Amino acid sequence: MVRVSQSKSTKVVGVLALQGAFNRHTRVLGELNVATQEVRTPQDLASVDALVMPGGESTTMSQLLESSELFEPIKKMIHEGMPVFGTCAGMILLAKEIIDGRDDQVSFGAIDIDVQRNAYGRQIDSFEAEIEVDGFNTPFQAVFIRAPRIVKAAQSVEVLAEFGVEIVLARQKNVLVASFHPELSPDQRIHELFVREI
Ligand code: GLN
User: Fold this and answer.
1) Among 60, 150, 162, 166, which one is most buried in terms of CB atoms within 10 A?
2) What pLDDT, in 10s, does the model give residues 28-87?
3) Does 54 sit in the ligand 1 pocket, CB within 6 Å?
4) pLDDT digits over 113-166, tens only?
């Protein structure tokens, strides 16, 4: 007897590949033996079970999300519970409120945080810092590049890591965000955290 399984055995993690630092995310996920799909079109999106939104330039990504006609279907999938992980510019795209954004910049409003772009100032464009992450028994070396700052978070947002008084890793339901670039550290634990949720 031939048994036909209805359920997909392999989950596919999409990596939004319109602009920015998507390559490294694909590589890290590959090293974790996760099937990946670069997402540039609604057709690419249709085959994914989760999505990573990389760092880069959130204003440009916002424009490309609209011109590629990915914005609405991604918004719908997030609303329906698709796990999504936004890093840096990706976090800006997922925020409810953007401060210092462009007037025409759109966001998914998927996590109840207010985010200020380029908030660490010009002098400290980029820096690295050790952060303590909930559930990790050693610190994570985080790389910040023109990082956004979470200036407000709702009670329902779970704080997973802070740098000083700043929230730098947070989760609300199916949405995980980092203000830094975990894909640039050799440490894969934050990607593992995301993959475990899928
Ligand atoms: N400052 C960038 C923005 O507003 C984000 C920087 C990054 O993703 N490294 O999109």
Assistant:
1) 150
2) 999 999 999 999 999 999 999 999 999 999 999 999 999 999 999 999 999 999 999 999
3) no
4) 999 999 887 656 899 999 999 999 999 999 999 999 999 999 999 999 999 999
Could you tell me which residues are beta bridge partners of residue 130? 141
Ligand 1, residue 57: give the atom nearest the CA: 10
Q: Decide yes or no: CATH 3.40.50.10190 for domain 12-196.
A: no
10 Å CB burial of residue 40 (0-12, 13-18, 19+) is: middle
CA–CA distance, 51 with 179 (Å, rounded to integer): 17
Out of 91, 107, 118, mutate this one to test ligand 1's pocket (max ligand atoms within 8 Å of CB): namely 118
**Ligand 1: centre distance to CA 104 (Å):** 16
Q: What spacing in Å lies between the alpha carbon of 77 and ligand 1's midpoint?
A: 24
CA 60–ligand 1 middle distance (angstroms):
10
Provide the annotated active-site residues.
88, 181, 183
Cβ–Cβ < 8 Å for 68, 18: yes
Q: Which residues of 4-15 are buried (b: 16+ CB within 10 A; e: fewer)?
A: eeeeeeeebbbb
Q: DSSP labels for 21-78? A: SHHHHHHHHHHTT-EEEEESSHHHHHT-SEEEE-SS-HHHHHHHHHHTT-HHHHHHHH
